[in-house]
Amino acid sequence: MRQKMTSLLIIDPQYDFYDVPLNEQLILDSKQNTISPSLPVPNSWEDAKMLAAFINKQQDHINNIVVTLDSHHEYDIAHSIYWQNKLGEHPTPFTLISHQDIIDGIWQPTKIEQLSHVLKYTQSLEKSGKYNLIIWPTHCVIGSVGHCIVSPIHAAITAWEMHKATQHHVISKGENPHTEHYGGCEAEYPLRDDIKTQFDPQLIELVKSSDQVFISGQALSHCIASTVEQIVKKLSSDDINKLTILIDTTSPVAGFEQQAKTFTENMANLGVNVTKTAEVTMD
Questions:
Q1: From which residue to which does the signal peptide run (predicted)?
Q2: Which fold, 6-72+139-279?
Q3: List of residues 6+ apart from 180 with CB closer than 8 A
Q4: Which DSSP string do the residues of 48-112 spell out, in sequence order?
């Protein structure tokens, strides 16, 4: 009898997205500096502990773990340094920049040679109904602690690797500074000259080759929502039924609770399973 193939997809389980409690924060250097997550999602540390417990409990049954990592540079279209106003001031975090704002000169790219690109970019986002361009706190910078997998999840993955004598697989997204990359399959605005921003079938193939795929990570309202939406567009109804969102291991960005609720309802209507870890049984 063929062994059931169970995969776990963990989306962006990185320090910058987790509300790490003070007594759990890393000591970074001899000066006793601790990590200060730039975009912590409320309740995410509890989510991390819940997911770690799930991985530890289901070690024998999980065959494959795939982790996406949000991977940025300081200079990024969704970071403030990319933009400036007429006074040369950069936007504050959570500033929305519309296509009309650029036309009106309220915000311009710091490198003016990007003007044509950002006009096309924002117009495309708004016409396609994707997230409007928002300036996030600088986050998940490659090489920083904020880019690393949080300790509870990292420890559970390491224990699984040792138990199964295998390794997890990483998909990096977001390195190109000229487009946002919420979803694990493709950027919000794929660029012709960068294949890493274009559609990547890896996650589609993961689902097709698995009997079930559990989904977790952060944040439910953004990168999980985008990734799952991108995946289901390419799947049959039978394959969609393989997906299960572990709802007690993920949370929305503050202020985006309704978007997360709408997303989970839409996915459930399509056949994606939405359940808590305690309700999962595996043979």
A1: none
A2: Rossmann fold (3.40.50)
A3: 77, 78, 131, 133, 174, 187, 188, 189
A4: HHHHHHHHHHTTTT--EEEEEEE-B-SS-TTSGGGEE-TTSPPPPTT-B--HHHHHTTSSEESSG
Output the tens digit of pLDDT for each of the chain's 283 residues. 567 999 999 999 999 999 988 766 555 444 445 678 999 999 999 999 999 999 999 999 999 999 999 999 999 999 999 999 999 999 999 999 999 999 999 999 999 999 999 999 999 999 998 888 999 999 999 999 899 999 999 999 999 999 999 999 999 999 999 999 999 999 999 999 999 999 999 999 999 999 999 999 999 999 999 999 999 999 999 999 999 999 999 999 999 999 999 999 999 999 999 999 999 988 7
Two structure tokens written together for 206: 């993961």
Distance, first Cα to last Cα, the chain: 13
